[in-house]
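User
Take a look at the entry that follows and flag anything odd:
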Amino acid sequence: MKLRYRLSYFMIGFAISSFAVVAILNQKQTRCTYFPNDRVLSNIKSKPFSISKEASSVLAESWIDSVDVKNTLQFGEVDFDRSNIGYKNGKLYTITGKTMQNEPLELVIENYDDKAILKEIRKIKK
């Protein structure tokens, strides 16, 4: 068999198997979280999430909304210099993000094995 035919059969098989892999992974809603920032945010979002009294009082203010917290947990950046600190059988993580009005904010989250608690919300001075 000539090289041209071998190569064409290989390419057809490769295309079909690539399509099958993509279809299966899309159906399972699989995410590629290889970077440390993505892994921490994915871990926090996968657990039951609660809000402390201090954070609830800040959420009642007009400059922030619960949508801002959700967006920060989705697209925020984990500050690893001030995160991954042992705290009461869990770890503290500091996540920075922005509000809908483009104001910088900071979330402090207690991450345990079975739950995540929003401990504090801070407005970052520009």
